[in-house]
């Protein structure tokens, strides 16, 4: 046996005494050590299968374990030549023999291994294989398995100087593949590792496409390490599965396709899996069609994520991962760590049982990183199940039968997994009226959403079975809300389309309405309360498009028996939270979840970790709940985050600081102390750094100290057991010394902890402005690279960001470019930056939502006149009769993007511009700045497509580097160029046109920003009365378009914007008072003359009088002259007018459709017919009527003539006198024109 070991060890280069080999190892240590590691694992297997005398075996294994524990994947260089020699000695000098039973050996081995690891050894017959020319003997028995400690570990060795105690952490925080554990075993693992566990166990060949978002925690990283360590899979068909790292580029899955094809041609049954992120899927689409057609059971485990490279944040956006939905590949989804494991099993079983390729999607932002205790199944049982399904593989001929076959596999898997799955999983009342259809992370929080609200989770997205979907929906359903994790584009989401299409086959009485909610950018908001609020809002707005950013989460469900502790750690402090989670889980039998958010935009990254634990297996963990305990490792964090906000009343807060109580008072903000007082927080101070220094504790010793400090300050009945768990976690060279160390640390911690008494003055302090700001510090860490997506929605158009920074010295008050990070910080940490999201016209604007955008003229008609309604609820917008609404329109997005591309810039370039001070701003007021992306500012603020003034041409001249262009620009603004300039105005050229025409004149972005005027709001007469419509405002608008002399189609800036909007879109508006007011008394006659959209304010007048009438007020006569081209196309609000006329409110309805008869008839003709009436209403002193004309300018003269004529006739006076009367009426504001 020793010969075998020697041969093997030599082949691994372990025992080489050749100096050259050692130098080589240090030249490329990682590679060498990995090889050594791999072989050490093989050595272990051999030791276990050689029937060695127990003591010999034990000594060898112990030494091997010690060496392995000292090899950290993160600090590979710790394996020294001396240690390797030491191992060689341990393996060779093992001669004394005492009899130890196999059972005892198992116990010894278990003790040697970490407490979380499970190992069962049964040495049976051996098989011999040849690897790299070396004969290796391995066990055939499935029960010989490797343990989690053999995977990547974070082992550290520390020698405490004082006690000379060698202390090694056995804890394996990054869990590796777990061997053949009992089915009921709970394992603490992350979503990624849970998936990899299954994929590795069930595959012979794994392709890994690392996510660009993370260097170390991508899906597949664990498998790479296990393969390097030589861990075999569950089928034992090969010694270790082959794990190949691939790069993500076009046609990324060619290698997979190649493997599929060659396996198919060789009729091989090797199992192929792919571990990838959604970015890889996007690049794989062409191959995926081919793979799907190959009818081979390839499983793709994919983390859904989208990386915002500007912000360095990850978003849980599934848009990318769903791009392959039409390739024919099956889609399964999992939404928690447990599900990630279970659905991985299902994915392999379904692939094997249907001979189809499967994409298993898990959330790459949360689930993949979250660590949770999950129930696992023995790998052999998994392999047997999949094999069984493969033997019974079905050939389905259509999608419905394929889905039924898949559900059959789900059913059979339920005994193994302890959970049954369905293609569509419905939970909720049988008589639900609203059904929320969820896919992805929303499934975790969508529960208990209200009476008669059910939830349908899509487990199997492809193939989509209409019949299975409809069967899962209660027949009582009236409305369906599809909540899908895709970007908020104007197009419908993919799942919405499937859901809507399914309802074509609905057999119920009333087809439910389907609303699409795309929350890809709002992943951070995703809580039970948020979804509940969302459902309420959708129901209240009856499906109108929602502004997700405005949804305020409703209170969460009570959490039941869940405890939560928060660790505020920094990259520099030790990761105690992970150890604690492990103790709670593995030693104390508590169900645990821990998730971290890391802000790495900081000198030393801040990590906020929440550890939640519960004895109950049923209660749900909820990250937004308050904690009873928090510990802050670095008190600098107190100035950056509001750590008290996440604490319950009376919670404990432990600060690791060298502070006395007085120093705490002196060094923390009044706001912080106020918050402590308000919540009656028990503050404990402990100076762990000094204690560690005094005791000479380093690395592992410090972590041990911090854990003890946690357990001593965290009042819990679990503590005694936890101390036992700590003891099991460390391996020592001397147990006695270790026990002594633990008790001395406990004693020391007890001595060092300072209880800070509640100070009544904390609540009495008056908080200044700075303190208020401190109170408003961010409550949570926002993950910057990995973690939970933030809700920064850079594209939210109506927002501008303000920053209260005075211009720096020497800074020109120009626009300037900045960077996304800064802008993101301003938004994310708005309180700290004093950031405000404001509308374009600051305090005078309102953000209102479109509730109706209805074309009034037939689509076949060349003029588009449309009716708009906005919801003003909770906006504070008030308007009077006759007011006009200012619309802050945007430029066309595509045209702006085209221009930015032409200009050689990027849409996301951040631009900071100073904002003008208000006219009445007090002296010394600091100008604020507005931060936008270049796209935003050109789309929303600057009149890029407006008419260029001569000044603009002149300003361009100095930038023109091309002499001919310079000359031409100069000519155009000269007296000689006047005609040409005029022609250009006729052509309605824009600023953008000029910049394209003179490309050498290329001002920088800040310069250009200063040359372009702002987009002016356009005004529209309000066509509603707020009395009649307290929460809405209506407009009547004609789309402006014309053809330039060159034949180019041109569009009005604002009307084009408005026509592009739909229900639910937000618009920034302001109010412009007007002279078009109703007479003071409701009895006074009102004479209204309107052409086309000139009808708008009169509709408001009529509504106001109708409202007055409904209140029982006696209202005077109303005459309406309405003119347009023809009745069929342009009788705007015809039905309403007829109704008012029939009701008698509109006493006279005079219609002039100019083109409906041979002779042209205009409103002035109708007025001429009513001369007596007009004279009476306007000049009878009792009646005191008012006259109004609204609309285009051109009829104004003829209309006036008609009035003048009526006065001449009625008064029997000359034209000059009649005109005088009209002027007098004008002065009295009884003859009012609003023409445009
Ligand atoms: C008090 C008031 C009330 C109003 N009420 C209504 C109403 O109820 N309904 C309604 O539809 N309208 C109303 N209007 C008109 C409305 O304000 C807008 O003028 C109209 O909608 C056109 O705006 P636009 O942005 O679409 O077109 P714009 O882009 O402003 O174009 C309008 C015109 O400007 C000229 N022009 C545009 N670009 C250039 C260029 N680059 N070079 C040279 N010339 C150019 C063209 O002649 C074009 O036809 C009202 C106006 C006022 C003042």
TrEMBL record:
<dbReference type="InterPro" id="IPR001433">
    <property type="entry name" value="OxRdtase_FAD/NAD-bd"/>
</dbReference>
<dbReference type="Pfam" id="PF00175">
    <property type="entry name" value="NAD_binding_1"/>
</dbReference>
<keyword id="KW-0274">FAD</keyword>
<dbReference type="InterPro" id="IPR002880">
    <property type="entry name" value="Pyrv_Fd/Flavodoxin_OxRdtase_N"/>
</dbReference>
<dbReference type="InterPro" id="IPR017927">
    <property type="entry name" value="FAD-bd_FR_type"/>
</dbReference>
<protein>
    <recommendedName>
        <fullName>FAD-binding FR-type domain-containing protein</fullName>
    </recommendedName>
</protein>
<dbReference type="InterPro" id="IPR002869">
    <property type="entry name" value="Pyrv_flavodox_OxRed_cen"/>
</dbReference>
<keyword id="KW-0285">Flavoprotein</keyword>
<feature type="domain" description="FAD-binding FR-type">
    <location>
        <begin position="843"/>
        <end position="1080"/>
    </location>
</feature>
<dbReference type="Pfam" id="PF00667">
    <property type="entry name" value="FAD_binding_1"/>
</dbReference>
<dbReference type="InterPro" id="IPR009014">
    <property type="entry name" value="Transketo_C/PFOR_II"/>
</dbReference>
<dbReference type="InterPro" id="IPR023173">
    <property type="entry name" value="NADPH_Cyt_P450_Rdtase_alpha"/>
</dbReference>
<dbReference type="InterPro" id="IPR003097">
    <property type="entry name" value="CysJ-like_FAD-binding"/>
</dbReference>
<dbReference type="InterPro" id="IPR001709">
    <property type="entry name" value="Flavoprot_Pyr_Nucl_cyt_Rdtase"/>
</dbReference>
<dbReference type="InterPro" id="IPR017938">
    <property type="entry name" value="Riboflavin_synthase-like_b-brl"/>
</dbReference>
<dbReference type="InterPro" id="IPR039261">
    <property type="entry name" value="FNR_nucleotide-bd"/>
</dbReference>
<keyword id="KW-0560">Oxidoreductase</keyword>
<dbReference type="InterPro" id="IPR029061">
    <property type="entry name" value="THDP-binding"/>
</dbReference>
<dbReference type="Pfam" id="PF01855">
    <property type="entry name" value="POR_N"/>
</dbReference>
